[in-house]
Amino acid sequence: MAKEYKKVTHCIFDMDGLLLDTEKLYTEATQRILDKFGGQKYTFDVKLSLMGVVHMDMCRKLVEIYKLPITPEEYSKLQKEINSQIMINSQLMPGAERLLRHLHKHNVPFCLATSSGQDMVEIKITHHQELFKLFNHRVCGSTDPEVKNGKPAPDIFLIAASRFPDKPQPADCLVFEDAPNGVKAAHSAGMQVVMVPDERVPIEMSALATQRLLSLEEFKPELYGLPPFDN
């Protein structure tokens, strides 16, 4: 893993599993659907391969992997019905609010780049509206027409960077991600990336990350030329 940290001016955040503790809710929703069709186990290996993937690609792969007797579109409908019920209770991950408010206080521009669709983002941030208004903009991969290819393609991060008013170069952007697919996307975009994965993610899947942390609470902004925390 790279140990050289370069100065940045802008930050780009993934959402699920990084800012919001939604991955366990996705696991619950997926397992509920599998239970309707024989009760196969939604394993962490399968989950890991799908983290960061746009919605319909994920639906197609799950139907294929588990040989479900429904179409990807039918799977999507089932998942959205369940998600709309449980995602409203999404909680912030440790260190997320502190970091976002710190960057905002010091006028460091930051945005959201999530594979979730705009409709699902609104449900997930129901109890965090004020905090998410601090973002300069949001790119929602599953519903944004400009995002032609989902993670691990770099599209979403390049588009996110291009929508800042001053249009920073990729090298000036620092991405925060939890998923290997997201790390690959950021690396392909030419950006440094701080990975904050599930502890079960193998260390070798962090090879392209600039830094791997256990939690956002461990992040030190000054390593990347950003203002240090006040305390």
From TrEMBL:
Molecular function terms from GO: phosphatase activity
Q: Which UniProt keywords apply?
A: Hydrolase
Statement: the UniProt record of this protein carries the keyword Protein transport: no
- The answer, when asked if Transcription is one of the entry's keywords, is no
Name the UniProt record assigns to this protein = Putative pseudouridine-5'-monophosphatase isoform x1
State the organism named in the record: Haematobia irritans
